[in-house]
Amino acid sequence: MTQHRESRVNRRPAEHALDQHFDRSGCSQLMGERQILELISLGAPLASILNKLCTAIDFQLGNVVSLVLLPDGDENHFCSVSRSARQVGLHLFSSTGIFSRDMVFLGTLEIYGCDPRRPAQAESQLIELAVRLAAIALQCQKAEGNCERLSTRSRDKFDGALPDRPPYIN
């Protein structure tokens, strides 16, 4: 008895899982989205939030590896990641820029797959949702950094006259 095997290029293992993650309005939902938003609101470390986000994307899409690349002034960094992925046989599945509300470049969500193909519509919607969540996390981290710098400047200005505890804002 000959067993028919569908090629990996034509097979989409996560296609059925994606169908389960649409609400009634047809918008896709990322598994773990609520937990990611909670981590952001609690001020969890950025690396933890982005790792959770990438794990959710990887699991939900299936047969992919995702990562968030942050701008560090070294443009060769993006090229070296892409080159390394090709060397181990991965193909670029999606590369999407992450921008703030005022269109400041925050990074890139790159997703690599075992097979050369492009995202289906449902997968593209899921990727866009992940990019929005990454933008929120990156903006919050940037805002926290700005607040810490302002707090340090203010504290230096008053030479220790401020309490050690940060103020609570109601």
Features:
alpha+beta; disordered N terminus; Beta-Lactamase; disordered C terminus; single chain; 170 residues; 3-stranded antiparallel beta sheet; 14% strand; 47% helix
CATH class: Alpha Beta
Q: Give the termini separation.
A: 72 Å
**What is the overall silhouette?**
globular
CATH homology group:
GAF domain
Question: How much helical structure, as a percent, in the residues?
Answer: 40-55%
Mean pLDDT over the full residue set:
76
Strand content: 5-15%
CATH topology: Beta-Lactamase
Strands, count: 3
Give a quick account of the main beta sheet: strands, pairing sense, barrel closure: 3 strands, antiparallel
Structural class by sheet pairing and helices: alpha+beta
Main sheet strand line-up: 1-3-2
Radius of gyration: 20 Å
Number of helices: 5
Using the 3D structure, state the CATH architecture. 2-Layer Sandwich
State the order of secondary-structure elements, H for helix, E for strand: HHHEHEEH
The low-pLDDT segments are 1-26, 147-170
- Work out the count of structural domains: 1
Explain how this protein is built:
The protein has 170 residues and is an alpha+beta fold. It has one domain (33-156): GAF domain (Beta-Lactamase, 2-Layer Sandwich), CATH 3.30.450.40. Helix content is 47%, strand content 14%. The chain is built from five helices and three strands, in the order αααβαββα. The chain has helices spanning 15-19, 33-42, 46-61, 76-87, 121-157, and strands at residues 64-69, 91-99, 105-113. The protein has a three-stranded antiparallel sheet with strand order 1-3-2. A hairpin with a 5-residue loop joins strand 2 and strand 3 (105-113). Helix 2 (33-42) runs parallel beside helix 5 (121-157). The protein is globular. The termini are far apart. The model is unreliable at 1-26 and 147-170 (pLDDT under 50).
